[in-house]
Amino acid sequence: MTNELTPKFNPTEVEAGRYEKWLEADVFKPSGNPDAEPYSIVIPPPNVTGKLHLGHAWDTTLQDIIIRQKRMQGFDTLWLPGMDHAGIATQAKVAARLAEDGILPQDLGREKFLDKVWEWKDEYATTIKEQWGKMGISVDYSRERFTLDEGLSQAVRKVFVQLYNKGWIYRGEKLINWDPKAMTALSDIEVIHKEIDGAFYHITYQIEGSDEFVEIATTRPETFLGDTAVIVNEKDERYKHLVGKNVILPIINRVIPILTDDHADMEKGTGVVKITPAHDPNDFEVAMRHDLPMINMMNNDGTINENGGKYEGLDRFEARKQIVADLKELGQLVDIKPVRHEVGHSERTGVVVEPRLSTQWFVKMDELAKNAIANQTTEDAVEFYPPRFNDTFMQWMENVHDWVISRQLWWGHQIPAWYNEAGEMYVGEEAPEGEGWTQDADVLDTWFSSALWPFSTMGWPDENSADFKRYFPTSTLVTGYDIIFFWVSRMIFQSLEFTGKSPFHNVLIHGLIRDEEGRKMSKSLGNGIDPMDVIEKYGADALRWFLSNGSAPGQDVRFSYDKMDAAWNFINKIWNVSRYILMNAEDVSADAVSSALTKVANKTAGNVTDRWILTRLNDTARRVTEQMDKFEFGVAGHILYNFIWDEFANWYLELTKEVMFGEDEAEKDITRAVLLHVLDQVLRLLHPIMPFFTEEIFEKLPNTSGSIVVAEYPKVRPEFNDDKASEGVAMLIELITAVRNIRAEVNTPLSKAVPMLIKSEHADFLNAVSPYISRFTNPSELTIAKDLAVPEQAMSAVVTGAELYLPLAGLINIEEEIARLEKELAKWQKELDLVNKKLGNERFVANAKAEVVQKEKDKLADYQEKFDTVKARIAELKEN
Fold first, then answer.
1. Are residues 805 and 819 both part of a single domain?
2. What is the pLDDT of residues 549-575, one digit of tens each?
3. Which of 218, 443, 615, 880 could cross-link with 726 by S-S, CB 3.0 to 4.6 Å?
4. Does residue 345 share a domain with residue 203?
């Protein structure tokens, strides 16, 4: 058969070549339908330093789920892909590769080195796109961008010049974070503070012209080479007699003043503080207040410079050892006290960051931050999911410092500023006319260009660009909480400044992926997981299912191979169900399905189980869509899983065998049609999460055409709703389950027929479905009535709408049965307590939707009826 599925789901076979077929069919491009509502996403650009990691796989999976669903719902969808040049990281990677051949970047010069970086970019961009293909992400490659594209470079230059002309970009000498390995400035948020073992070194400075000494404590003794003062608090009686005098720095013998400043804390340490303005942010502020000189004692690579005397040329940490040894020999090292303290490390290279006075370019953040804060009170506010991350965003914007944007690199957007020998500076989008101008050698922070990503990729600064007019602002951004400061915040304030609009309507924040023990994945721990290895074993669909169902928005998730096994098993379950349906309904046409569904809806054909499953399908489609709209993919997945595995596969499919193994061909045709329709709708609901195997099965359905990528997403069809059928089959399932449980408790296999009595107000309905009861419970005789004599020695169960009795004389122990029923009574009492507590909560009753409150009241009535029935049955058994 052409529509036959293989006996076992094989992800490698199903996914091979599928992505290329989608690209060839151009199904990922916007529809171009002017009447459709636009929905756009720009992919968080991965940097071109290597392979995708699980965090990026999470980003792309969630975004692909969103865009695939919106595409199926008829939106004019654009998902724009691209990559980031990642200045520091990429330059470091290329330099390391060259170093393997004994080549330094300086040996090549700027232009030839950049040629090597472009080669790297092309190599790794190709790898990333291949990995995107394996993930199945449905982007429009005809619009792919890179942060160093000419169009994006034009946007960067325009933004820089406009901010400079407003006075919001300036060049100045300030204390910044310095990465001695990458030899570049870093912004505050590129510094990771790690707790490490260190020490407080207690050193004495001699008072000039006397035998008196003062004691200071520092964790960085090498910085005394740049000291320009010591300070005490003016209220500190211990040192009032020393104010105005000088101390002599040991070894280098420089004389520096003793000053008063509130920065000196009388209660902390000795109360005497050394001031090294060029290498400490607090000391820098003190120096500004007292107009102190600022001595930089360190080279770009972290070695001591000419201001370090005999230590010149030593690495900073080697200099520390030598200085400590020399101070000890002089008798001016008083003590070394171990301390555990936080030290800044470079986010990119991992080395200890050095606070260092340097001339850099900065963005003044006060006005930009004010605009972003004010916008969050308007209709254009960015909606964060979960909402608590709005507070994270606001707190950062309220406490933001000026942003150092220059980097001492070659790879990146070269700063559009030029200098001449006359000391003049020119800032412009293009080079100045005339001879003698040299462009600033620095490049801009990578995040400066990434901050423009949502609108620069759409054609800005050309505001008449078709994509900019149609798809900006973008609809949703998905990213991890670890880059709210790096990227999300910067996109918001730059977009507001240059387009007057927020860059996106929604920001969905997810957490971090951790290992099974809850640890953050890292190279040092060796616990990283390559998503491509996972796909190789389980397939992309299984990985995507895990990533979408792993946690709630904003929460971390633990990777687990057990969960991957469960995902694969779920897909295999659907595969087997589909195979069974296709084998039994290979020739059913679309017209036949439509006609059969109309008859079932009109109750002119079909049975109660058909009407039940269509009602449940409606409810599932409604609830899944609601949860997807709230980005609660885990909840949506849970709803889908329960419907597919329990209601559709375990119950409806089994119930249909009563018809499929029967003689009524007309009834079989109806059942085949319903099976095909439900399978079709299940595949569509699942497709955004698991695109590959759903397309594989969808194209084999006998009544479909085209790709599921652009198939219509399921909608609620009111004509299929049948509350009576839903309640009736729910009672039937509960009853069958109760019989199975009782049989299991008394070790009575299903193969052994036993008598069964059912007392119910719904006796007519239960008699109508008695063939199902007989098939699944195997009664030797079945009695169903509204009123009947209750046997004395019988196992019993209470289900919604019915009481079940199995007279199993000789197989039951009355005392054990009473004990069992008392446990059941306790269970219903617990349920009653929970519902009563909820309904007794005035806030819940006042604020919840009317249908939610009514649902709780219905539960209360149901639980009370079961409680009363079980209680009465216990009393009967005790009397007998």
1. no
2. 877 788 888 999 999 999 999 999 999
3. 615
4. yes
Q: Which residue has the tokens 């030839």?
A: 112
703, 590 Cβ separation under 8 angstroms:
yes
Are 31 and 76 within 8 A, CB to CB? Answer: yes
Q: Let me know if residue 532 belongs to a domain.
A: no
Backbone angles phi, psi at 841, to 5 degrees: -85, 110
| Cα separation, 521 vs 527, whole angstroms | 5
Helix (H) or strand (E) holding 42: strand 38-42
CB neighbours (10 Å) of residue 379? 6
The 8-class DSSP code of residue 651 comes to I
Report the CATH number that the domain containing residue 232 is assigned in CATH.
Answer: 3.90.740.10
What tokens were used for 158?
Answer: 């325009």
660 and 584 share one domain: yes
- DSSP letter for 225, please: G
* pTM given for the model: 0.84
pLDDT at position 404, please?
93
Q: Any binding-site annotation on 523?
A: yes
CA atoms within 13 A on the CB side of 343: 15
Q: How many domains does the chain have?
A: 4
Q: Are 121 and 412 in contact (CB under 8 A)?
A: no
pLDDT tens across 486-516, in order?
Answer: 789 999 999 999 999 999 999 999 888 888 8
* Mean pLDDT score of the chain: 91
SS in 3 state form for 257-305? EEEECCCCCCCCCCCCEEECCCCCHHHHHHHHHHCCCCCCCECCCCEEC
Query: How many C-beta atoms surround the C-beta of residue 252 within 10 A?
Result: 15
In SS3 terms, 109-131 reads as CHHHHHHHHHHHHHHHHHHHHHH
pLDDT in tens, 615-643: 999 999 999 999 999 999 999 999 999 99
Task: Tell me which residue range forms the domain holding 821.
Answer: 815-879
Say which DSSP state 874 is in: H
Ranges of H-type helices in 451-499? 453-456, 466-471, 489-499
Which residue type, as a one-letter code, is found at position 537? K
